[in-house]
Structures are given as structure tokens and as C-alpha cells.
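quick q for whoever's on today - can somebody do inverse folding on this one?? i tried earlier but teh output was garbage lol. C-alpha cells:
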């Protein structure tokens, strides 16, 4: 995968349960970035959607997309940015992968997950649920953690 800039190992951000933003385009051009939870496995970015998701519909028409992940901690002076571009594949739901993704954000014990959330928002057995896989064509990491320190970059 070609890289334009690598200020830090991307696994630093891929390993953390951060919010990512998925940017798609459609007939009208660029769309808003959709905030998504994600999982990094097998060299690919995975997220979820369902058949009613507007970003899923746009990916069906134009699968080229971009993802950004940012870690920002003003108090510590940390600002790490990861960006990737690639082509999305919309795949049938894989319950095991979906559970791993949810565990990153909700904790490892499914008995502690909010039942209302699982039943209404993140239903593992939803027949309309889909996985979106993006294998990056380009990946960039930028450490701009100098906004408080000047040229002395804080290392992740």
C-alpha cells in the first residue's frame, strides 16, 4: 500500500477505540463524513451499516472513499491524524467480526452491553446489516502534536 507520509505507526490509532469518519461521494459530489466505529483486521478497515444507511447507498454507486481517524488531547498536547483512501466492499454481516467490533467500544462482556442499543441500533442478527471493508490504497499518518510545544513534537 503506497504511503504519502508516515509520522507514526498507524497501529497506534487502529488499536484504540476512536471514532473514525467515512467520507463518500455520490451523484451530487462529496457527502458529509459519517462518524463510524471501526475494526482494523487483516490489513483492512471494517465498519458496519445497514441497507437504509445513506453512506451504504452511496458506496453502492461509488465505492471509492476516504477515512480519517484523529486522536486529540488538548491537555497533553497530542494531535495524531490518520487518513486512508481506498475502495469499499459491502459484504454480508459476519456476526463474529461484528461482535469483535462492538466489544472494542462496549467492552468485552456482552452481558454488560445495553440491551436496548443492541436490539434497536446494533442488532447482530439484523438481516439488513452489512460489513464495509476498505483495503487502503493510500495511508497517511501525521503527528501534529506541536501546537502547544512548538517544534518539539510529542511522540505517541
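ok took a stab at it. sequence:
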Amino acid at each position: 500500500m503506497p504511503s504519502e507520509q508516515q509520522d507514526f505507526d498507524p497501529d497506534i490509532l487502529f488499536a484504540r477505540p476512536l471514532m473514525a469518519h467515512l467520507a463518500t461521494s455520490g451523484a451530487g459530489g462529496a457527502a458529509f463524513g459519517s462518524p463510524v466505529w471501526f475494526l482494523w483486521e487483516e490489513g483492512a478497515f471494517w465498519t458496519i451499516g445497514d441497507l437504509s444507511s445513506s453512506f451504504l447507498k452511496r458506496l453502492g454507486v461509488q465505492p471509492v472513499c476516504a477515512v480519517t481517524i484523529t486522536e486529540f488531547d488538548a491537555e497533553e498536547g497530542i494531535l495524531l491524524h490518520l487518513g486512508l483512501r481506498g475502495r469499499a466492499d459491502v459484504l454480508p454481516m459476519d456476526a463474529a467480526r461484528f461482535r469483535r467490533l462492538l466489544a472494542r467500544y462496549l467492552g468485552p462482556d456482552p452481558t454488560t452491553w445495553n440491551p436496548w442499543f443492541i436490539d434497536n441500533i446494533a442488532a447482530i442478527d439484523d438481516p439488513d446489516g452489512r460489513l464495509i471493508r476498505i483495503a487502503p490504497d493510500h495511508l497517511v499518518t501525521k503527528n501534529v502534536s506541536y501546537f502547544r510545544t512548538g517544534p518539539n513534537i510529542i511522540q505517541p
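fwiw The first strand starts at residue 3 and ends at 6. also The chain has a mean pLDDT of 90. so keep that in mind when u check it
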